[in-house]
Task: structure prediction
Amino acid sequence: MNKKKKITVILLPLFILISFFALKFWAQEECVEYLGGIFTENFNTEDYKDTDHTSVAYWPSGPISLNWLGGTLEITAPSGMGSQIYVCDAGDFDGDGYPDLIGLDITEDPVTEIRRYVLILVRNTFEDLNDDGIDDDGIVFQTDESEIYETGLDVGPASITVGDYNNDGLLDFFFYKNDEDNPVYDKFVAAMYINAGTATDPDFYPHGSSPNLDFTSRFESEGIYCRWSADHLVSVDIDQDGDTDVLVISQDQIFLVRNPGAGSFDIANFDISELNYDQPPGFTIDMGGSTIDAADFDNDGDIDVVAGTVEDIAFLVFYENDGTGYFTRHELPIPNPDCIGAVATCVGDFNQDGRIDLLCSNDVWRAGNDARMWMYTNNGPLEGEGIPVDFQFECLNDCLPITPPVYRDYDDDGIDEEYHDVDMGISVDFDMDGDVDFIFADANHSGDYYLAVNELANVYITYGEAWSTNISAGLDPNLYAITKVEITNLRMRTRGKSKVGLKVELYLSNNDGKDWEFFQSFEEDNIKNRSDLPVHTFNHFGSHLRWKAILSAPEDPMEEYSGASFDTPLISEITFEYTLVDRREYSRTSVVVTNVEEGDQQKKYLLASTFYFPSWEGHLRAYDLSGMTPESTSYSVLRTVSRPDLSETSGREIVPSGVEIVWDAGELLDARSAASRTVYTATPVDSVLTSVDFSASNVDTLGPILQDVNNDNEGLINYIRGDGREWKLGDSNHSNPIVVGPPDGAAVQMGDGYQDFMNTWVDRRKVVYVGANDGMLHCFDVLTGEELWGFIPYNLLPKLKNMWAVEVATGERYSARDIYVDGSPMVADVYIDVDGDASKEWTTILISGQGSGNGSSLGGGTNYYFALDITNPDNPQPLWEFTHDFLGETWSVPVVGKIRKNGEDAWLAFMGSGYDNNPSDTVGNVFYAVDAETGEYFWGFYAGEVDTTVGLGWNIPNTIPCSPSIVDINQDGHADRVYVGDLDGRVWKVDVSIDYQDPDSWEGVIIYEDSNNYPIISKPAVWINYVLGGTIPRLYFGTGGDDRAPSDAAYSFIALLDAPTPEVEWYLGDSSILNLPEQKDVGDISIGERVWADPKVADYIVYFSTLTGSIDSVDPCESIVGVGKLYARFVQTVAGSIIGGTAFATASGPQESIELAIKTRAAVTFGERERASDGTRKREVYIQEYDSTIQKLEQTIGAILKVRSWREVYKVIR
Result:
């Protein structure tokens, strides 16, 4: 049963920690929940306000509302600065709350006509004593002649950017310049000027003096030029580690100057490299790239980049960050030809709707267009291919030039021509009225600057967001996790003339905003006080609670404004109660049973993978079952082998005698030094993946891919290897271990040379492979538990930095869990050209998906399978990685088979695809065949979608996360059929016995469709009665395997004959619901029983388990509650048994099912046949349950032919 223990805590639940430590840890018989805390936000303070992402008004002092409409820019010409500022950037250098400017003054002496070139502070002198929103004396910025920091900086082109680079709380700046616009270094300077003053009195020294960092020589060695005065530089925390980095656009390249952090703040520790993108900007004409800026435009939590050029190129480039620091290029058209030639790209939320807009201006001299100002208004994310943002272009100021004319005779014809020019632009809230303004200048011509003042209207913007910071501070994520939250009090109302179209949407996150989960929306009359809201159960793991509210209103028709409303929703108070769980042991994977030889003794090992949650501590234990004797009875007996017990040193209780834990790979690995481990990865060399030691000695190769946020790529490598980590082995949440020993295929079926291959590797050591969310596929020695090696797929390399996160407030590094290799590996022997020498050889390959561990777009996609040559388990070699535009999450475990292609043998891997994790497109409903040699797409079919919304009232988007089955009907070594299920309740067949000549040679055919399209997640078990000469495959599968499917539905288990006309042979279910003949109904499964686990066949019996409730919930209490059952049904008449009848026998007669200790989503594992002391023959059937309890079914069987291998007993081709 589920026990919920509540402890009242207000705000920070500090004393709950004491209560937790007082608990006695006992064998896990129940899941305990705790009230972790109560938090109320009334918007009186900004203590828990995420100011960077909040765009609503009146926080504080509440109630929050939509903001006033901005974006109406009025161009003004304040009194001059007292100088001609050529380039500048903004920041509050003197601590008075108003942004100042740091700039390059190029004022010309009217007598000598000689310019001075000095870096100078331009103070903000804005004063508005009469509160009319206008500076009283018209002087907004004024140079301070006492704050000249360097002189003699003769320039042609230049650029400057501001940031606090050393994290000391004082603003610094980065300046670079050249004396001419050509790609040469002429009086070139590139330097980071470090503030040596105080918060109220800044001070800087010339660029070559300490504490400045002089990057001149490093820029020169990287080929970074300064050509044309424009916004070449931008300061941004590109990797969101709390340190300000610098982006530089030069020629047709973008460079990242990555900050190593305050703890390593030395020029030698800065990394300068080209931005990790799929292709350069494409600005290949003359001056090349000129302007750059960066922000989270698509609101997905990472920083994107935008860049432009002064040349006659009619687009900007937009680089979409995939979340790992890899950027995909898109073109953002400039639809008005008068606006081509960008010199400034400035970001800011100009209209105050919470989305980052882009304001640009252009230069006259290169593209020939007079200076104009134009805006890309951000209307939110876009789905589909292309730019992920809905940008709306508008040329401002009636598309008239924004600077006064300048008359110059630049073509030497004796006539002065009229020009309008801009040299630079910056976005800044100069008057601190809460909206973003714009400064632009043409210092070397008109000689002064201009303000585009953002005027707020007395109407509301139609969109705004309110974000909180973490409201559950103080929780140790290694001990506690937040699984539920309840909003117990929500006070809302509206303001204005009408409620029509007003909306409030609430989102919640328990992982500090990494993933936002929709809670509820309230519209029109429902925007009112609420205290009856449901409890929200999280779908992600975490212990940092945040909330987000989106306020919106429809656009009202107005004569003067567009995109505005007269009305707004209001929120005045919101109260949360959140629920915690503490650390326990769990498992979602199957066990493996294998024999090992220890000296002259043969022993029977059971290998079981588990993890602790929270903390995600991985374990892989070997149990010696050699001394566990079967019970002397002819009845079916379910016995518990082991269950979790945190009071034991091993963490386990061993129930029967004769069983012991031999090793725990997690413990053994943790005791090893990180340096003693062997870890591999792969990088492409001439487009071929090549093995690389994942070690600090290869940091030059790995560093540009890893891109640690603090430039400590060597430290990141060592951390991934285990240095500084509390526990080295990550969790194998969904990755099933697989044991591989010497080759054991049927030589006659496999083909020429296979017997020699078997002979060569007859003594190959027995190992176990398993994926883990520490970034690796692991290989362990079965006998000793020693890790032989770990392998990190290439596509995951850029994602590894997520594991070594940075606490922004302190700069401290900490361990953060992400998902990496969470799919299950499979192994097959294939005849392929593995080494590229044009000669095929027998090879043992391993193919694994990554589950929901999506990789970097560096590899060309999002979701991946990877393959290794593991013929020699001591020397694995990378083969390929497969991705595709429509490939969803890679849960489907591939099968491998030999087919005929144009009369020749070819080896293919078949796999499904799902779930859909692409917010911009539909993926996951394609079934794939992949060339096992090259990893290239070979063939596939699209499964489509059955929308059940009308018929059922709910719909699960169709994908194919199911694993396929493959069968060789005539046992000639070639695959004949491939079967797979989908989430629309259909079973597909592909006849691969047909010689493949083109994509039309094969097709996916539906041979079964559930009457309600209830989802199928299980791999169909396929059985052919070869003993009786059978040639008709029988398929066994069940429905309901998805947590989104209703808990009150009647699901089914189906036995299907794939005859020329496929038909159901027998079933468990409701005939009236399934529309199947009642005479084929051999029993029922209870309402809500789902078939999650893969059925397995042995000894003429198909075994499958069911469960009620959830099993993939992140709340372990949700996944434990409910009932798990084990079924066993005869697939053939044996000693008078009925086909489809139960195989379980008890003293009181046949039993339909056996209730498990705890429910499970893992498939059963077959052990050996054994004989009890009374002579009864039994089959060992093992099952690991969700709370990591391991049980053994001793099932009575007849005298059946000995099975040669228990790797997968019903599988007839490998």
